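Researcher: I'm preparing a figure for a lab meeting and need a structural model of a single chain. I don't have an experimental structure, so a prediction will have to do for now. The sequence is pasted below. Please return the structure as tokens so I can convert it later.
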Amino acid sequence: MPDQSRILTLTNDLAELSRVADFVSGFCSDTPATPGDLSALQLAMEEVITNVIMHGYGEGGGQSLTLAMVLPVPDRIKATVTDRARPFNPLLNPDVDTSLPLEERPIGGLGIHLVKKLMDSCHYEWWQDQNRFTLERKLGRDVDAVALMRIATSKRPSSAILSVSGRLDGLSGPELERQFRALCDSDIRNIVFDLSSLDYVSSAGLRVFLLAAKTLRAEGGSTGFAGLTLTVREVFEVSGLIGPLDVRESVSSF
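Model: Understood. Here is the structure written out token by token.
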């Protein structure tokens, strides 16, 4: 397979994340990438680029950044994000302690942790007055639109099922949080998240899940997470959430 490379230029706007997902998908379609590889690469690119937009530039200023992807050898993909924000190496952030109980877990901070766990290598450098973050993933690793939320009435009093499908990322996460808070405002104290149709979740989605779990527990309620797809389960496992969160095979088990 010949060497191939593509470059995508972006502005510092979270709306660009849909272009990032499409770009990664298009690049991977011409490679031996498995569905698990694609999901991992999309997640890593979203986390790194969101970090640049939100904490490097600040959203909406019109600055640009680039994402370059290359297949240097047939079984490995390398991606590089370059920007002109202030120098910042996210790899210097303290490692996330995934063994902490739910009460002690911070709501955020999982983004770079996910990147490091899902990629085979990560490298940062300040190069020609630019931040340059390079990631590589060996292909062949797999797991054996805006998310759509649907609220269903549960048989239990003060309970609800919140179904999430599609992609749960930096764009759709705020809508899920709005739905969750609306349920809390209507005195719902027990929520089961049905994730059987959720294809993708980033740290922005995990943040909402943790927020819901901690909020409801503090109010004497509960949260459950059911029907995780293999891809989503891998993200939960890497983030150390299978234990702290109540994860079950199906909604009927609650």
